[in-house]
Amino acid sequence: MIEFNDKQILILQIAEKLFAENGFDGTSIRDIARDANVNIAMISYYFGSKEKLLERLIFFRSQDLRIKLKNLFEEAIDPIQKIEKFIEYYIEKIDSNRNMYQILHFEITNKRRAMDLEAFTEVKKGNLQILEKIINEGQQQKCFKTNIQVPLITPTILGTYFNFVTNKPFFENILGLDSEDKFNSYIKNELTNHIKQTIKSLLIYEN
Amino acid sequence: MIEFNDKQILILQIAEKLFAENGFDGTSIRDIARDANVNIAMISYYFGSKEKLLERLIFFRSQDLRIKLKNLFEEAIDPIQKIEKFIEYYIEKIDSNRNMYQILHFEITNKRRAMDLEAFTEVKKGNLQILEKIINEGQQQKCFKTNIQVPLITPTILGTYFNFVTNKPFFENILGLDSEDKFNSYIKNELTNHIKQTIKSLLIYEN
Amino acid sequence: MIEFNDKQILILQIAEKLFAENGFDGTSIRDIARDANVNIAMISYYFGSKEKLLERLIFFRSQDLRIKLKNLFEEAIDPIQKIEKFIEYYIEKIDSNRNMYQILHFEITNKRRAMDLEAFTEVKKGNLQILEKIINEGQQQKCFKTNIQVPLITPTILGTYFNFVTNKPFFENILGLDSEDKFNSYIKNELTNHIKQTIKSLLIYEN
Amino acid sequence: MIEFNDKQILILQIAEKLFAENGFDGTSIRDIARDANVNIAMISYYFGSKEKLLERLIFFRSQDLRIKLKNLFEEAIDPIQKIEKFIEYYIEKIDSNRNMYQILHFEITNKRRAMDLEAFTEVKKGNLQILEKIINEGQQQKCFKTNIQVPLITPTILGTYFNFVTNKPFFENILGLDSEDKFNSYIKNELTNHIKQTIKSLLIYEN
DNA sequence: GATGAATGAGTGTTCATTCAT
DNA sequence: AATGAATGAACACTCATTCAT
Fold first, then answer.
1. How near does any CA of chain A get to the CA of B117, in Å?
2. What is the pLDDT of residues D41-86, one digit of tens each?
3. Residue A132: CB partners within 8 Å, gap ≥ 6?
4. Is the Cα torsion angle C19, C25, C27, C29 positive or negative in sign?
């Protein structure tokens, strides 16, 4: 495991913010160097290249992004509550790493980034397995219906969240969320709740 | 209404493809010129600037994007069927303009693009109103539940779709969609159906 | 003698104005075409090139610039009056072609313009000869001193005028010439008179 | 006070030469880079932009251009000698910065350059005041006439010089100055003397 | 280990000019 | 005779990166 020193971490943090705001191409290493108050050459010196900085940034955050939900499965609550908690934790985790996910969402999926995202694929698969376990359990307990396309659950959870966040100005407008706090609070409460209801309905009711 | 000549349309098409693949900043006018087999100066000559090319591209596609669902509301089918058709049409329309939506999704929401997207906001609002009408109708006919957060329905529809498309490689992998056709077919059938089920469950069942 | 048609003359006039204001390099043929309300291709079509347009412009104006002072020499007035009239006519002529002289002054003297200015050299030489004649006459009549560097007289006349015009803002400021009319009137009266006094003093008084 | 390093000074010197010869617009940063044997990017790197290079160039030379003639006024010589020295120093100073003055003369006075020339206006005003003092002194000592337009003296001094220099080829031709040395020597001796005579005559003799 | 200086490659854009019609 | 369409060359400038120290 490679360690980062303080200056490297500062650079990573600034880079994360700027990449999220302006995109990878829209952010120059000069911007990063200026905001981080370090020499331009530092970025290449520490990380080799801008591209590798992005890689290291993803690596740096990857632990945060590895959402551990295993304990959740062990908890003595019913499957419905597990699903609710799964969603709650998931959204919360993503929302607290909004910048990083923005970057992953926007930059990495592009053809141009030949980046090793195996780690994330594994995380995704892991989370999917946890979800599968919960759903299987619910199906066995007859509280969930039988024909469920499990792999399409997460796109609905994450997609709803991302679409909301991505269209921030639109929803601020039509929902009257005139402050950052209100917007964040809406995500934490109403939006999360909406997603819970959506998934629960889908899992429970036959139609 | 401004008309585009053949060469302009060619440039717009190439630009659309490249912007979707590599992003706006990741695409140089030289790339566009090369792929479109036109002189570099043509882009500036025809569109004034790269930025304006993007504007014109959005304008060029915006007609297609104006999803006409009004007739749908008039049809003599029950609200549930209307919702199903609404989703079907919506996904179909977006999917046929996948590149354009990718661009909108990636570039426009960024802080750096100060672009006039009023037209789209209007389209979104229009679609939202149609959805509201359908849902109201369904509520009056007692086939939908009463407490529904209508503005959060579309994020779920679109978000699910986009999350799926954005994570194409991941889903190709876990779903065994080993050809372009299979992937597209999956969207048209399974994914669309999943979204229909999701929304219908949400609208119908109280929990 | 080549004739110019109306459109050509219009182009020449617009070009003259713009060249004087913004310099040759600072003026694009697009600027000229726009202001003259003609097609861009017209300039090259009519004049062959931008450079040749300048040549034709100089040729076009050169007749105006051929200051006819021969008659002046024949007039039955004393040499001092002839000198005064010479200066008066000279300044008047140049001032009425201020734009053209500005161009000549700024562009032609540059190394980069390998332009045929023979015509002008001839005009200058012609004027110099007239001046020499007048001065010789004055010397014979004992009203002018004998040791006079005739070729340096015109630099003083023209240089004083051009330096004044070139530093327009400075002199407007310190002389309180707060309108175009006042500035022009100052040239016609005070400045011209100053030049007359200067040259007369130089020609008359031994020191 | 900002310091310039050797390479910056080299660039400034080359730029000065080229701007004087070909004008600002007529000189590309490629030309400068080539002649100075530095990378093109260096100009932007060191000076920010071509425009700012010009600004720095003017700043760089501005000390040289601040002609100090105050001591002259204190010298124990008569006003006529002071005027002679004033002219001699002035011409000498300008001639040793011929390139720089050419640039100022040609580029700055143009409408298109919105450059801060306040410093120069101040210098001009300062020199004007010194001249006024000398002339006032001369008038009090009855060696100068009373009705003198002081602000028009400098245009005659500078204008004569510039007109001569600007029409170099013409005067080389008619005066037979077939070498650089002869031309420079002519300025230093005959031309300077001509200007001295001119101004002295103007100041002394009533007509 | 850290950095100021420097650079080649690339950017979007503008230019005068040409050419088919 | 006249022009709209088109183009290659050049422009100023920014980029990520390298390198000597």
1. 10
2. 999 999 999 999 998 998 888 776 665 666 677 778 899 999 999 9
3. A150
4. positive
**Average pLDDT of chain D, as a whole number:** 87
- Contact of C145 with chain D, judged by CB distance below 8 Å, is answered with no
Instruction: Answer whether residue D3 shows pLDDT above 90.
Output: no
Rounded CA gap, A166 and B159, in Å?
10
D51 touches chain C (CB under 8 A): no
Q: C81 at the D interface (CB within 8 A)? A: no
Contact C23 D159 (CB under 8 A): no
Task: Give the global pTM.
Answer: 0.84
Burial of A191 (0-12, 13-18, 19+ CB in 10 A): buried
* B180 token code pair: 């372009």
Which distant-in-sequence residues (6+ apart) come within 8 Å of A133 by Cβ? A73
Contacts 24+ apart (CB under 8 A), C91-94: C91/C157, C91/C161, C91/C187, C91/C191, C91/C192, C91/C195, C92/C188, C92/C192, C93/C64, C93/C65, C93/C67, C94/C158, C94/C161
The protein footprint on chain E, as nucleotides within 7 A of a CB, is 2-19
Interchain contact A190–B (C-beta under 8 A): yes
Contact C121 D149 (CB under 8 A): no
Distance, CA of A142 to CA of A126 (rounded, Å): 24
Q: Each residue of D176-203: pLDDT tens digit? A: 999 999 999 999 999 999 999 999 999 9
- Quote the tokens at residue C71: 């008659």
Give dist(CA B16, CA B100) in Å, integer: 6
The Cα C43–Cα C113 span in angstroms is 19
SS (H, E, C) D85-154: HHHHHHHHHHHHCHHHHHHHHHHHCCCCCCCCCHHHHHHHHHHHHHHHHHHHHHHHCCCCCCCCCHHHHH
Query: How far separated are the first and last CA of chain D, in Å rounded?
Result: 50
B181: pLDDT strictly greater than 70 = yes
Which chain D residue has its CA at the smallest distance from C128's CA? D174
| Residues whose C-beta lies under 7 Å from strand E | A 7, 38-42, 45; B 27-31, 40-41, 43-45, 48-51; C 27-30, 40-41, 43-45, 48-51; D 5, 7, 38-42, 45-46
